[in-house]
Each structure stands twice: as C-alpha cells, then as structure tokens.
C-alpha cells in the first residue's frame, strides 16, 4: 500500500561538475541541522565519498539514489526509507543537472532523480568567471526541460559586492529567485586525491572543520527560510517506503556473524547493504582491517571498496589478520569482495604482501576506470547463479593480474573480470544490493551453513 510522503525535499544541482554543489549541499545540511532540523542527506549516483560528508553534516547515514543501480522504481521508496524521522531532505546532484549515463538521454541524471522524487531543484552556479552571463546559463537550464522545476539559484564564488550586483542583474529577468550568494572561502578546501575528495572516514578532524566552515558560509549567505519554503512546496510523494524486512525472510533461529570491513580503507559501501544483511538474519559486525582481527564467530566476510593502494603497507603489517583471513577462507568462509576487497584478497598490492587468497597481484596505475557496467555472472557460486545479469559500477585506478587461468566472476562487454569459486565472489564491480535482494539472502544462507546453523 502506498502513502503520501510529505517530507519537504529539494535537490541541489549545478550546470557542471566543479561548481561547488558538494560544498553548498553539505553546508545546507549542516546549517539546517544547527537550526534545529533533522536532515536526511542523499547523493545522486554511485558516489561513496560525498555521502560520508553528508553523514558528518547530518548525523545520519548518507545514502545514494541511483536509478541505474537500484532500478528506477526503487528511487522514491529508497528516498522515503532514508527520510524516515527527518523533517527535511537535501539531495545532492551529480555532475551537471542533465548529465546521466552515456547514450541514454539523461538516465540516472540529477534531473531524472528530481522527477522521480517530484522535487524542486536549486541550481548552484559558479559565478567566478562571469557576470550577467550567469542569467543566460540559468535561463538555458530552466528552458532545457520544463519537467524539471528550478525554484532558485545559489551564486557561488562571488568576488565582491559589485560582482554580486552584476550577476543578480543578469539573473533577474529569468524570474528565478536568488536564494543565496556565497563568497570565495579557502577554509572550504578539502584534501583530494586520485579518485576525488579524501573520504571523511580518513580525516575526521579536517572533514568536521570543512563541514563547519560550509555551514557558516551558508548561514551567512543563504536565505535558509526561503530554502526551506522551497523544499516545503514539493508535492506529496505517493510512495511506499522501501523496507529491507519485506525483501528477505530471515531464519527463525540463530544469527550468523557477517564481518563487514570498515575503517579508513574500506569506507565505500552502501548503507542499505548492512540493513539488508541484518533483515536477512545476520548480525553485521564492522571491523577495521588496519588494526583488528575478524570478529568472534565470523561466519562470512564482506569486503567493500575504498583505498587499499594508499594503505597497502599498513594492511600488510596486520599479519595476524592476513593469515586469519586466508585460513578462514581456505576453510570455507564465504566472502564477497568488491574493488578494494578484490585487491585485499590478492597475494600482494604494489609489492606489499596481502592475504594471498587469490593467485594475483594488484598494482596502482595512472589509468582511471570509471562507469556503469552491465555484467553477467560467469559461473554459479553461493552468491550468484551463472547467467545472472546485473548493473554495477566501476571506479578505480588499479589493475589485477592473475598468475593462472581462473574462473571469472563476470562477463563484461570488455571481457572477463574478477574471480569466483564456490564461496568466493571477488571483482571490481560495485552493486547496489537493493536491486538484487536475493544476493544478501543467499550470502546470509551461506553464512548460516558455514556457522553450522543449517546443513
């Protein structure tokens, strides 16, 4: 049964990447929270880093909305689920407002998600190198797709009062109100690296300082009441909130422990992954592979994504865990490894010894592999049946070379990828498990068998 979701909501978008929408979105989330609101934060697309900053700003888990990975029909239900208990939701867009999967006319774009949520859009425009011309940019974005409702503009990187006046004069004829003007501020610089910003989990103090600075900038420069009013003008959303408990059926007795890698290295994972595993009957325990051992009674292991290439030496130094993981997997421990997890299972990464579960070596390169992928399972394992078709995402600058012929995890348009055998599924592909709820259910079932709870 569907119900009207009345949560005030707004999408923060931009004409292109680099306009400052992450700074503005995070600043808005933090400023609203400081003003007494309970804020739900979302990111359009498969990004893992921005939701980490959303979590710092809101004090709630960051979540992703991605029609390509979760399915178009799940976007609004996932939004309703993630907004539970909040009184306002801020959705940060991806790239330019109308940029989606290549060759799809904007599928999975910020505009696409705004329509699925029936949410108004605020456009963040970098005004640093323009004056009245900003008005032409705004007018063009308003006219490009009249199904997208742009209700306001936030001018970013404005240099002076005179500059602000000129830009405002250019925007005025469009009829789109200016909700805020932000000046350049060096305190907002967050360290970055080869895949974008450094995750908040790796630099908590710096992340908190950047969020505080963004919140203060927004407080001073944005009309928060007008922003809230625009969010409250969103129409009721006729939707049933996604519920992980309705996707799976847990066993009646016994909860196997599924160890989930976390900490600075393994920070790339979707919030719903743990929720699905828990609903399927597992006890999910997060541990830090840099310093800790596997949790007691671990019956399965989930290794998500992150930056192992920057922590290879430290990962290698945790010899006890390396040996424990290798021994447990050799004894039948089920494991799902995505991207960083694939590298951790290799014999070595950039010359540093790792677990040696896979007959392979990983190496950092200068080439970025990025994009959505349609993949077909290359063999039957405890997690996937051969021929299973999924949509995933790759995002890395490393490569893995196997010493011998192995059974691949996936067939991709570019060839075979990853490694699979009975209880192991390791690859570069990230999946949003909400689109494949049988996967967490099967993973928990495999954990139950390994724990002796089922035959």
Which helices and strands appear, and what pairs or packs with what?
Layout: E1 3-5, E2 9-13, H1 21-34, E3 39-44, H2 49-58, E4 63-65, H3 67-70, H4 75-82, E5 88-92, H5 110-116, E6 121-126, H6 133-144, E7 150-158, H7 161-171, E8 178-183, E9 192-193, E10 196-197, H8 204-221, H9 224-232, E11 237-239, H10 244-247, E12 257-261, H11 271-279, E13 283-287, E14 298-303, H12 312-317, H13 319-330, E15 335-338, H14 340-344, E16 348-349, E17 352-353, E18 360-377, E19 389-402, E20 410-412, E21 415-417, E22 419-421, E23 424-427, H15 438-450
Parallel strand pairs: 2-5, 2-6, 3-4, 3-5, 6-7, 7-8, 12-13, 12-14, 14-15, 15-23, 16-18
Antiparallel strand pairs: 1-11, 9-10, 16-17, 18-19, 18-20, 20-21, 22-23
Helix pairs in contact: 1-2, 1-8, 6-7
Give an account of the 3D structure.
This protein is α/β, with parallel strands linked by helices and about 450 residues long. α1 (about 20-35) runs parallel beside α2 (about 50-60), α1 packs across α8 and α6 (about 135-145) packs parallel to α7. A seven-stranded parallel beta sheet has the order 4-3-5-2-6-7-8, with helices on both faces. It has a six-stranded mixed beta sheet with strand order 13-12-14-15-23-22. Strands 16, 17, 18, 19, 20 and 21 form a six-stranded mixed beta sheet that branches. The chain contains 15 helices and 23 strands.
For the termini, the CA-CA separation is 37 Å
Number of strands: 23
Largest sheet: 7 strands, parallel
Side-by-side strand order of the widest sheet: 4-3-5-2-6-7-8
Strand content: 25-35%
Give helix % range.
25-40%
Radius of gyration: 23 Å
Q: Which regions have little confidence, pLDDT < 50, spanning 5+ residues?
A: 190-198
Q: What value does the average pLDDT take? A: 93
Q: So what's the overall shape?
A: elongated
Structural class: alpha/beta
Provide a count of the helices: 15
């Amino acid at each position: 049964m569907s119900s009207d979701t009345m949560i005030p909501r707004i999408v923060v978008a931009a004409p292109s990447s680099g306009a400052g929408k992450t700074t503005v979105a995070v600043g808005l989330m933090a400023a609203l929270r400081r003003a007494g609101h309970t804020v739900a934060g979302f990111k359009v697309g498969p990004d893992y880093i921005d939701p980490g900053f959303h979590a710092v700003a809101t004090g709630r888990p960051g979540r992703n909305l991605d029609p390509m990975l979760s399915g178009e029909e799940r976007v609004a239900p996932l939004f309703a689920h993630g907004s539970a208990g909040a009184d306002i939701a801020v959705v940060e867009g991806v790239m330019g407002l109308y940029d989606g999967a290549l060759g799809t006319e904007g599928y999975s774009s910020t505009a696409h998600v705004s329509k699925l949520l029936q949410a108004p859009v605020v456009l963040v425009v970098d005004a640093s190198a323009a004056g009245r011309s900003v008005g032409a940019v705004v007018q063009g974005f308003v006219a490009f797709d009249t199904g997208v409702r742009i209700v306001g503009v936030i001018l970013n990187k404005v240099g002076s009062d005179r500059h602000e006046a000129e830009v405002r004069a250019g925007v005025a004829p469009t009829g789109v109100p200016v909700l805020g003007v932000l000046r350049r501020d060096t305190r907002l610089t967050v360290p970055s690296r080869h895949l974008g910003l450094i995750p908040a989990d790796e630099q908590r103090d710096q992340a908190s300082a950047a969020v505080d600075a963004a919140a203060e900038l927004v407080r001073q420069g944005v009309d928060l009441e007008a922003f809230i009013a625009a969010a409250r003008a969103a129409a009721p959303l006729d939707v049933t909130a996604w519920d992980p408990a309705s996707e799976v059926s847990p066993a009646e007795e016994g909860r196997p422990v599924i160890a989930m890698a976390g900490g600075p290295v393994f920070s790339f994972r979707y919030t719903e992954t743990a929720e699905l595993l828990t609903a399927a009957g597992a006890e999910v325990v997060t541990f830090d592979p840099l310093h800790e051992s596997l949790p007691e009674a671990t019956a399965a292991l989930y290794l998500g994504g992150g930056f192992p290439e920057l922590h290879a030496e430290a990962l290698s130094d945790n010899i006890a865990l390396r040996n424990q993981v290798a021994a447990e997997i050799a004894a039948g421990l089920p494991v799902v490894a995505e991207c960083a997890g694939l590298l951790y299972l290799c014999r070595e990464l950039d010359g540093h010894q790792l677990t040696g579960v896979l007959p392979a070596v990983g190496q950092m390169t200068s080439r970025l592999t990025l994009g959505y992928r349609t993949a077909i399972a290359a063999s039957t394992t405890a997690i996937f049946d051969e021929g299973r078709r999924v949509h995933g995402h790759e995002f890395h600058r490393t490569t893995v070379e196997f010493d011998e012929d192995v059974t691949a995890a996936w067939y991709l348009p570019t060839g075979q990828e990853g490694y699979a055998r009975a209880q192991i599924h390791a690859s570069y592909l990230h999946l949003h498990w909400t689109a494949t709820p049988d996967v967490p259910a099967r993973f928990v079932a495999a954990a139950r068998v390994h724990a002796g709870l089922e035959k």
